[in-house]
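>> Question from a student workshop board

For tomorrow's exercise we were told to take the sequence and the ligand below, predict the bound structure, and bring the output to class. My setup keeps failing. Could a helper post the expected result so I can at least see what it should look like? The ligand is alpha-L-sorbopyranose.
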Amino acid sequence: MSKIKVAVVGTGFIGPAHIEALRRLPNVEVTALCEATPELAREKANLLGIERSGNFEEILAMSDIQSIHICTPNFLHFPQAKAALLAGKHVICEKPLSKDLKEAEELVTLAKETGLVNAVHFNLRYYPLVRQMKTMREKGDIGEIYSVIGSYLQDWLFYATDYNWRLEPDKSGDSRAIADIGSHLMDMLEYITGLKTVEVFADFNTVHKTRKKPLKPVETYSGKMLTPEDYADVPITTEDHANVLLRFSNGNRGSIVVSQVAAGRKNQLKLEISGASKAVAWNSESPNELWIGNRDAANQQLMRDPSLAYPEARGIMSFPGGHNEGFPDTSKQLFKEVYQAIAEGKQPANPGYPTFADGYRELLICEKILESHRAQKWIKI
Ligand code: SOE
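>> Workshop helper replied:
Here is what the output should look like for this input. Compare the format with yours to find the bug.
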Protein backbone atom coordinates (compact mmCIF):
# COMPACT_ATOMS: atom_id res chain seq x y z
CA MET A 1 0.00 0.00 0.00
CA SER A 2 1.53 3.37 -0.96
CA LYS A 3 1.70 5.72 1.97
CA ILE A 4 0.56 9.34 2.02
CA LYS A 5 3.66 11.52 2.17
CA VAL A 6 3.48 14.35 4.69
CA ALA A 7 5.56 17.43 5.53
CA VAL A 8 5.61 19.13 8.93
CA VAL A 9 6.45 22.83 9.25
CA GLY A 10 7.78 24.00 12.63
CA THR A 11 9.32 21.88 15.38
CA GLY A 12 8.80 23.71 18.64
CA PHE A 13 6.62 21.82 21.15
CA ILE A 14 3.70 20.71 19.01
CA GLY A 15 5.43 19.87 15.69
CA PRO A 16 7.19 16.79 17.13
CA ALA A 17 3.88 15.80 18.76
CA HIS A 18 2.27 15.82 15.29
CA ILE A 19 5.17 13.74 13.90
CA GLU A 20 4.91 11.16 16.68
CA ALA A 21 1.14 10.84 16.21
CA LEU A 22 1.43 10.56 12.41
CA ARG A 23 4.01 7.78 12.78
CA ARG A 24 1.39 5.69 14.55
CA LEU A 25 -0.83 5.62 11.42
CA PRO A 26 -0.27 2.80 8.89
CA ASN A 27 -1.10 4.86 5.78
CA VAL A 28 1.13 7.89 6.44
CA GLU A 29 4.84 8.71 6.12
CA VAL A 30 6.40 11.91 7.46
CA THR A 31 8.84 12.55 4.61
CA ALA A 32 9.90 16.17 4.94
CA LEU A 33 10.44 18.83 7.59
CA CYS A 34 10.66 22.61 7.34
CA GLU A 35 12.13 25.08 9.81
CA ALA A 36 13.10 28.76 9.87
CA THR A 37 16.50 28.07 8.27
CA PRO A 38 17.79 25.20 6.08
CA GLU A 39 20.45 24.44 8.71
CA LEU A 40 17.90 24.17 11.52
CA ALA A 41 15.60 22.14 9.26
CA ARG A 42 18.41 19.69 8.50
CA GLU A 43 19.42 19.47 12.15
CA LYS A 44 15.86 18.78 13.30
CA ALA A 45 15.21 16.34 10.41
CA ASN A 46 18.29 14.33 11.42
CA LEU A 47 17.22 14.43 15.06
CA LEU A 48 13.71 13.22 14.17
CA GLY A 49 14.79 10.72 11.52
CA ILE A 50 13.09 12.48 8.61
CA GLU A 51 14.50 11.96 5.10
CA ARG A 52 14.15 15.43 3.59
CA SER A 53 14.30 19.03 4.82
CA GLY A 54 14.11 22.47 3.30
CA ASN A 55 12.56 25.89 3.43
CA PHE A 56 8.83 26.36 2.97
CA GLU A 57 9.00 27.00 -0.78
CA GLU A 58 11.13 23.89 -1.31
CA ILE A 59 8.61 21.81 0.64
CA LEU A 60 5.71 23.14 -1.47
CA ALA A 61 7.64 22.23 -4.63
CA MET A 62 7.91 18.57 -3.58
CA SER A 63 5.20 17.11 -5.84
CA ASP A 64 4.93 13.83 -3.88
CA ILE A 65 4.05 15.62 -0.62
CA GLN A 66 0.26 15.45 -0.34
CA SER A 67 -0.36 17.17 2.99
CA ILE A 68 1.28 19.77 5.21
CA HIS A 69 1.03 20.21 8.98
CA ILE A 70 1.52 23.85 10.00
CA CYS A 71 3.03 23.97 13.50
CA THR A 72 4.64 27.42 13.40
CA PRO A 73 3.88 30.53 15.49
CA ASN A 74 0.38 31.94 14.92
CA PHE A 75 1.40 34.83 12.61
CA LEU A 76 2.70 32.31 10.02
CA HIS A 77 -0.43 30.16 9.91
CA PHE A 78 -2.29 32.30 7.34
CA PRO A 79 0.48 32.80 4.73
CA GLN A 80 1.62 29.19 5.02
CA ALA A 81 -1.86 27.63 4.92
CA LYS A 82 -2.81 29.85 1.93
CA ALA A 83 0.35 28.96 0.00
CA ALA A 84 -0.08 25.26 0.76
CA LEU A 85 -3.69 25.22 -0.47
CA LEU A 86 -2.68 27.11 -3.63
CA ALA A 87 0.05 24.49 -4.15
CA GLY A 88 -2.62 21.78 -4.02
CA LYS A 89 -1.69 20.41 -0.61
CA HIS A 90 -4.14 19.24 2.04
CA VAL A 91 -3.59 21.32 5.21
CA ILE A 92 -3.72 20.50 8.92
CA CYS A 93 -3.14 23.75 10.82
CA GLU A 94 -2.43 24.28 14.51
CA LYS A 95 -4.90 26.46 16.42
CA PRO A 96 -5.57 29.33 16.22
CA LEU A 97 -6.18 29.12 12.48
CA SER A 98 -4.72 32.61 11.99
CA LYS A 99 -3.98 35.86 13.82
CA ASP A 100 -7.28 37.49 12.91
CA LEU A 101 -10.77 36.85 11.58
CA LYS A 102 -10.17 38.34 8.11
CA GLU A 103 -7.32 35.92 7.44
CA ALA A 104 -9.39 33.01 8.75
CA GLU A 105 -12.32 33.94 6.51
CA GLU A 106 -10.04 33.96 3.46
CA LEU A 107 -8.66 30.53 4.36
CA VAL A 108 -12.14 29.03 4.81
CA THR A 109 -13.19 30.37 1.39
CA LEU A 110 -10.01 29.20 -0.34
CA ALA A 111 -10.18 25.74 1.24
CA LYS A 112 -13.80 25.37 0.07
CA GLU A 113 -12.87 26.45 -3.46
CA THR A 114 -10.01 23.97 -3.69
CA GLY A 115 -11.98 21.08 -2.15
CA LEU A 116 -8.79 20.08 -0.35
CA VAL A 117 -8.88 18.49 3.09
CA ASN A 118 -8.54 21.16 5.75
CA ALA A 119 -8.39 20.62 9.51
CA VAL A 120 -7.48 22.49 12.70
CA HIS A 121 -5.75 20.70 15.57
CA PHE A 122 -8.47 20.92 18.21
CA ASN A 123 -7.14 17.59 19.38
CA LEU A 124 -8.63 17.77 22.88
CA ARG A 125 -11.99 16.80 21.35
CA TYR A 126 -10.40 13.36 20.81
CA TYR A 127 -10.14 12.28 24.43
CA PRO A 128 -12.53 9.29 24.22
CA LEU A 129 -14.65 10.38 27.19
CA VAL A 130 -15.14 13.80 25.59
CA ARG A 131 -16.77 12.01 22.66
CA GLN A 132 -18.71 9.88 25.17
CA MET A 133 -20.17 13.07 26.71
CA LYS A 134 -21.07 14.38 23.22
CA THR A 135 -22.78 11.10 22.36
CA MET A 136 -24.61 11.02 25.70
CA ARG A 137 -25.99 14.50 24.87
CA GLU A 138 -26.97 13.44 21.34
CA LYS A 139 -28.84 10.40 22.71
CA GLY A 140 -30.69 12.53 25.30
CA ASP A 141 -28.98 11.02 28.36
CA ILE A 142 -28.09 14.46 29.76
CA GLY A 143 -31.28 16.27 28.80
CA GLU A 144 -31.60 19.97 28.01
CA ILE A 145 -28.40 21.77 28.99
CA TYR A 146 -28.98 23.96 32.07
CA SER A 147 -25.42 25.23 32.63
CA VAL A 148 -21.76 24.82 31.67
CA ILE A 149 -18.81 25.54 33.97
CA GLY A 150 -15.31 25.29 32.51
CA SER A 151 -11.69 26.09 33.31
CA TYR A 152 -8.34 25.72 31.63
CA LEU A 153 -5.36 26.30 33.94
CA GLN A 154 -1.60 26.18 33.29
CA ASP A 155 1.53 27.46 35.03
CA TRP A 156 4.14 27.57 32.25
CA LEU A 157 4.01 31.41 32.30
CA PHE A 158 3.91 31.63 36.11
CA TYR A 159 7.10 33.65 36.62
CA ALA A 160 7.81 37.09 35.15
CA THR A 161 10.92 35.49 33.64
CA ASP A 162 8.88 32.85 31.78
CA TYR A 163 9.02 34.12 28.19
CA ASN A 164 7.68 32.88 24.83
CA TRP A 165 6.64 34.24 21.42
CA ARG A 166 3.01 33.88 22.58
CA LEU A 167 3.58 36.98 24.73
CA GLU A 168 4.20 39.12 21.62
CA PRO A 169 0.97 40.30 19.93
CA ASP A 170 2.66 40.73 16.52
CA LYS A 171 3.44 36.98 16.58
CA SER A 172 0.53 35.61 18.60
CA GLY A 173 -2.37 38.07 18.22
CA ASP A 174 -4.06 40.51 20.64
CA SER A 175 -5.40 37.76 22.94
CA ARG A 176 -3.14 35.11 24.46
CA ALA A 177 -4.62 32.85 27.18
CA ILE A 178 -8.10 32.94 25.61
CA ALA A 179 -6.85 32.46 22.02
CA ASP A 180 -4.29 29.81 22.98
CA ILE A 181 -6.15 27.58 25.45
CA GLY A 182 -9.56 29.24 25.87
CA SER A 183 -10.14 28.30 22.21
CA HIS A 184 -9.83 24.59 23.11
CA LEU A 185 -12.30 25.05 25.97
CA MET A 186 -14.86 26.97 23.91
CA ASP A 187 -14.54 24.50 21.01
CA MET A 188 -14.98 21.54 23.36
CA LEU A 189 -18.02 22.89 25.22
CA GLU A 190 -19.89 23.68 21.96
CA TYR A 191 -18.82 20.28 20.54
CA ILE A 192 -20.19 18.39 23.56
CA THR A 193 -23.34 20.43 24.23
CA GLY A 194 -24.34 21.17 20.62
CA LEU A 195 -25.14 24.70 21.83
CA LYS A 196 -23.88 27.92 20.28
CA THR A 197 -22.41 30.65 22.47
CA VAL A 198 -24.45 33.74 21.54
CA GLU A 199 -23.23 36.41 23.98
CA VAL A 200 -20.17 36.90 26.18
CA PHE A 201 -19.03 39.16 29.04
CA ALA A 202 -15.28 39.02 29.64
CA ASP A 203 -12.82 40.43 32.15
CA PHE A 204 -9.08 39.92 31.57
CA ASN A 205 -6.11 40.40 33.88
CA THR A 206 -2.43 40.72 33.00
CA VAL A 207 -0.75 39.62 36.24
CA HIS A 208 2.78 40.30 35.01
CA LYS A 209 2.53 43.68 33.29
CA THR A 210 6.24 43.50 32.56
CA ARG A 211 8.16 40.33 31.78
CA LYS A 212 11.86 39.58 31.43
CA LYS A 213 12.74 38.60 27.86
CA PRO A 214 16.02 36.62 27.63
CA LEU A 215 18.44 38.42 25.31
CA LYS A 216 20.01 35.13 24.22
CA PRO A 217 18.71 31.59 23.78
CA VAL A 218 18.23 29.95 27.15
CA GLU A 219 19.85 26.53 26.66
CA THR A 220 17.63 24.00 28.27
CA TYR A 221 19.15 22.48 31.36
CA SER A 222 22.41 24.27 30.65
CA GLY A 223 22.75 25.00 34.31
CA LYS A 224 23.85 28.48 33.35
CA MET A 225 22.28 31.05 35.63
CA LEU A 226 21.26 34.05 33.56
CA THR A 227 22.31 37.39 35.07
CA PRO A 228 20.10 40.53 35.09
CA GLU A 229 22.05 41.82 32.07
CA ASP A 230 20.80 38.79 30.14
CA TYR A 231 17.20 40.06 30.21
CA ALA A 232 15.25 43.01 28.77
CA ASP A 233 12.06 44.34 30.40
CA VAL A 234 9.10 43.92 28.02
CA PRO A 235 5.65 45.45 28.65
CA ILE A 236 2.89 42.83 28.34
CA THR A 237 -0.56 43.70 26.95
CA THR A 238 -2.11 40.23 26.64
CA GLU A 239 -4.02 38.36 29.34
CA ASP A 240 -2.57 35.91 31.85
CA HIS A 241 -6.04 35.28 33.28
CA ALA A 242 -9.60 35.65 31.93
CA ASN A 243 -13.09 35.25 33.42
CA VAL A 244 -15.86 34.97 30.84
CA LEU A 245 -19.64 34.75 31.35
CA LEU A 246 -21.48 32.92 28.57
CA ARG A 247 -25.04 32.94 27.22
CA PHE A 248 -26.09 30.04 25.02
CA SER A 249 -28.48 29.53 22.10
CA ASN A 250 -30.96 27.71 24.40
CA GLY A 251 -31.16 30.74 26.71
CA ASN A 252 -29.16 29.16 29.53
CA ARG A 253 -25.82 30.23 30.95
CA GLY A 254 -22.22 29.25 31.61
CA SER A 255 -18.85 30.58 32.69
CA ILE A 256 -15.20 29.82 32.03
CA VAL A 257 -11.92 30.72 33.73
CA VAL A 258 -8.60 30.56 31.87
CA SER A 259 -5.17 31.14 33.42
CA GLN A 260 -1.55 30.52 32.45
CA VAL A 261 -0.19 31.54 35.88
CA ALA A 262 -1.92 28.93 38.08
CA ALA A 263 0.86 27.23 40.07
CA GLY A 264 0.68 23.46 39.94
CA ARG A 265 -1.84 23.24 37.14
CA LYS A 266 0.38 22.05 34.27
CA ASN A 267 -2.31 21.72 31.64
CA GLN A 268 -5.70 21.17 33.26
CA LEU A 269 -8.96 21.52 31.37
CA LYS A 270 -12.14 20.89 33.40
CA LEU A 271 -15.77 20.92 32.28
CA GLU A 272 -18.98 20.38 34.27
CA ILE A 273 -22.16 20.26 32.19
CA SER A 274 -25.48 20.14 34.04
CA GLY A 275 -28.58 18.96 32.21
CA ALA A 276 -32.28 18.29 32.91
CA SER A 277 -31.61 14.54 33.44
CA LYS A 278 -27.96 14.21 34.48
CA ALA A 279 -24.73 16.15 34.88
CA VAL A 280 -21.31 15.15 33.55
CA ALA A 281 -17.90 16.36 34.66
CA TRP A 282 -14.48 15.66 33.13
CA ASN A 283 -10.90 16.65 34.10
CA SER A 284 -8.03 16.36 31.61
CA GLU A 285 -5.65 15.50 34.48
CA SER A 286 -7.59 12.22 34.85
CA PRO A 287 -8.93 11.85 31.29
CA ASN A 288 -9.94 8.20 31.60
CA GLU A 289 -12.65 8.92 34.19
CA LEU A 290 -16.06 10.55 33.70
CA TRP A 291 -18.22 11.69 36.64
CA ILE A 292 -21.97 11.36 36.08
CA GLY A 293 -24.26 13.21 38.49
CA ASN A 294 -27.82 12.16 39.36
CA ARG A 295 -30.57 13.79 41.45
CA ASP A 296 -32.47 10.61 42.35
CA ALA A 297 -29.79 7.93 42.14
CA ALA A 298 -26.18 7.35 43.11
CA ASN A 299 -23.63 9.32 41.15
CA GLN A 300 -21.41 7.25 38.83
CA GLN A 301 -17.74 7.14 37.82
CA LEU A 302 -17.40 5.80 34.25
CA MET A 303 -13.92 4.49 33.44
CA ARG A 304 -12.75 4.72 29.81
CA ASP A 305 -13.38 1.21 28.55
CA PRO A 306 -14.44 0.25 25.01
CA SER A 307 -16.87 -2.30 26.40
CA LEU A 308 -18.66 0.37 28.48
CA ALA A 309 -18.74 3.25 25.98
CA TYR A 310 -21.05 4.15 23.12
CA PRO A 311 -19.76 2.98 19.68
CA GLU A 312 -19.06 6.59 18.69
CA ALA A 313 -16.58 6.91 21.59
CA ARG A 314 -15.33 3.34 21.23
CA GLY A 315 -14.23 4.31 17.69
CA ILE A 316 -11.49 6.57 19.10
CA MET A 317 -10.24 4.07 21.70
CA SER A 318 -7.29 1.81 20.84
CA PHE A 319 -6.69 0.24 24.22
CA PRO A 320 -8.84 -1.77 26.65
CA GLY A 321 -10.09 -0.36 29.94
CA GLY A 322 -7.34 0.36 32.44
CA HIS A 323 -4.72 0.86 29.71
CA ASN A 324 -4.94 4.60 29.88
CA GLU A 325 -5.05 6.83 26.80
CA GLY A 326 -4.02 10.47 27.02
CA PHE A 327 -2.83 13.62 25.28
CA PRO A 328 -0.61 11.99 22.59
CA ASP A 329 -3.42 9.61 21.64
CA THR A 330 -5.79 12.49 20.87
CA SER A 331 -3.70 13.67 17.91
CA LYS A 332 -3.40 10.11 16.58
CA GLN A 333 -7.18 9.69 16.66
CA LEU A 334 -7.78 13.10 15.03
CA PHE A 335 -5.25 12.44 12.27
CA LYS A 336 -6.71 8.97 11.69
CA GLU A 337 -10.01 10.62 10.69
CA VAL A 338 -8.27 13.36 8.66
CA TYR A 339 -6.14 10.88 6.69
CA GLN A 340 -9.15 8.77 5.83
CA ALA A 341 -10.38 11.90 4.01
CA ILE A 342 -6.97 12.59 2.46
CA ALA A 343 -6.87 8.99 1.20
CA GLU A 344 -10.14 9.79 -0.63
CA GLY A 345 -8.60 13.00 -1.96
CA LYS A 346 -11.12 15.60 -0.80
CA GLN A 347 -12.88 17.22 2.12
CA PRO A 348 -16.02 15.25 2.96
CA ALA A 349 -19.40 17.04 3.03
CA ASN A 350 -19.73 16.61 6.81
CA PRO A 351 -16.31 15.90 8.29
CA GLY A 352 -16.24 14.57 11.84
CA TYR A 353 -12.95 16.32 12.52
CA PRO A 354 -12.47 20.08 13.27
CA THR A 355 -12.10 22.05 10.03
CA PHE A 356 -11.01 25.56 9.02
CA ALA A 357 -14.66 26.57 9.57
CA ASP A 358 -14.30 25.49 13.22
CA GLY A 359 -11.04 27.42 13.38
CA TYR A 360 -12.88 30.49 12.06
CA ARG A 361 -15.63 30.03 14.68
CA GLU A 362 -13.11 29.89 17.51
CA LEU A 363 -11.41 33.05 16.28
CA LEU A 364 -14.82 34.77 16.08
CA ILE A 365 -15.62 33.80 19.67
CA CYS A 366 -12.16 34.87 20.86
CA GLU A 367 -12.41 38.24 19.07
CA LYS A 368 -15.83 38.88 20.65
CA ILE A 369 -14.46 37.91 24.08
CA LEU A 370 -11.61 40.39 23.61
CA GLU A 371 -14.09 43.06 22.40
CA SER A 372 -16.23 42.45 25.51
CA HIS A 373 -13.22 42.81 27.83
CA ARG A 374 -12.19 46.05 26.16
CA ALA A 375 -15.74 47.47 26.27
CA GLN A 376 -16.55 45.94 29.67
CA LYS A 377 -20.01 44.98 28.46
CA TRP A 378 -21.97 42.05 27.01
CA ILE A 379 -21.13 41.46 23.33
CA LYS A 380 -23.26 39.36 20.97
CA ILE A 381 -21.61 36.77 18.71
C1 SOE B 1 0.48 26.10 25.37
O1 SOE B 1 -0.49 26.80 26.08
C2 SOE B 1 -0.10 24.81 24.79
O2 SOE B 1 0.93 24.13 24.14
C3 SOE B 1 -1.21 25.10 23.78
O3 SOE B 1 -0.70 25.86 22.67
C4 SOE B 1 -1.80 23.77 23.28
O4 SOE B 1 -2.84 24.01 22.34
C5 SOE B 1 -2.36 23.03 24.49
O5 SOE B 1 -2.93 21.79 24.06
C6 SOE B 1 -1.26 22.77 25.50
O6 SOE B 1 -0.62 24.02 25.88
